[in-house]
Write a structure and sequence with these properties.
By secondary structure, this protein is mainly alpha-helical. It is built from 13 helices and seven strands.
Amino acid sequence: MKIFPYHFILSLFIALTCAGNIKADTPPVKKANSHKADKPGFTKADADLAYKAFNQYFYNPKTRIYCSTTKKDGVAAIWVQAIYWDMAMNVYERTKKPAQMDFIKDIYQGNFEHYDNYNWTNKKVWFIYDDMMWWIMSLARAHQLTGNKVYLEKAIAGFNHVWEGSHDPKDGGMFWDFQHSGKNSCITYPTIIAAVRLYNITGDTSYLNKAKSVYEYGRKNLFDASSGRLADNKIGAHPGYSDYTYNQGTAIGAAYALYKATKDASYLNDAKLAADYTMNHMCKNGILPTEGDFNEQGILKAIFAQYIMELVKDGKQTQYLPWIQQNVNTGWQNRDTARNLTFRNYAIPCPTGDIQSYEGSSIVYFMQIVPPTKK
C-alpha cells in the first residue's frame, strides 16, 4: 500500500495550510449524533445534501483546494485532491448543472496554483510516482468529460514522465517510488486505467499495449487468480498480501477498462473475481472494512466506489448493487445529522468532533454514483 505515515510526515513539510499550521493530534471523539429513527436509504436530495456538507466542512473556496480536517487547518494530501476532483466530475455527470462544471474548473485551478502548475519534475511537490498517476487518471477523465485540451496535455506529459521513471523494461511492472523499492498495486492498476483512457482519447495503440503489459505483470505478481485477492506490493521476490479496498477497486477498474477496449472476456472475469473477493472476504455482515485511523486510508473506499460502480452500471454486473446499497444506506443512516457528515466506519454513528476529509469522503462519493434507494 501507500506508506501513509510516510506520506503524512512529508506533507508536514511540503504542504501549505488552509488556515494555519497542520496539527496531527487525533481529536477527542464526542458523543455521536445519528438518526436511527429513519428507515435506511437515501434520495437524490440526500446525495446533494451530503456533497454540500462535505464541501462546506472540507473545501476552502479561497484556495480552491480541500483541507485535511473539519478544522481546516491543513491541506489534504496531494493524491487525494485528485479523488475529490473525480467526485466533482461524478456530481456533474449526475446533475448536469453548469455551476458544477465551474466547480470542476475551480478545483483544477486551485491545485494548479498549489502544486507548481502540475510540474511533474518538481520533486518537492511530487515525491512518489503513484501520487502522480492518480492525477494523470483524473486529468484524462476530465478531458473526456469537458474536452479541455489542457487537461489532456497535462495527462500525456505526466504519463510519459511516470512511465520513463517507474516502468521496469527488464522485468516488467511499475515501481511506486523514486528509489525503486517495490512494485505496488497502487501504481500498477492506476497506470493501466490511465493508459486505457489515453488510448480511448487518442487512438494511440502504444497506450493500450502498455496497459496490457502492465496488467500481465500485475496478474502474475500481484493478483491471486484463484480468489481475486490483490497483493499490496511485491518487494524483491515475494508479494505482500494485505487487503485494501482501493487495490481491489483499481484492479476491477483496470480489468474492466481492458475488457471494454479489447472485448477479451478474461479481463471481465478478473474484474468480477476481484469484486467477489471484496464482497465475500473483506466485509463484516456485508459492510466494507473501516480502513484508516485518522490517516489517508480513510479515502480508500471512495476509490473502490468509482470502479465497482463502473462494473455495476456500465458493465451491467448488477449482482453487486444490493450489497453496495446496503453499505451506503448504513453509512448515511449513521451520519452526524447536525452536520450531515459521514464516517469511514459505516456501522457506527459518525463522531461529532473533528474528522478528516479522507474518512468523511467515501459515503458521499458512493451517493453520487449509486442509484438512490428512496424517492
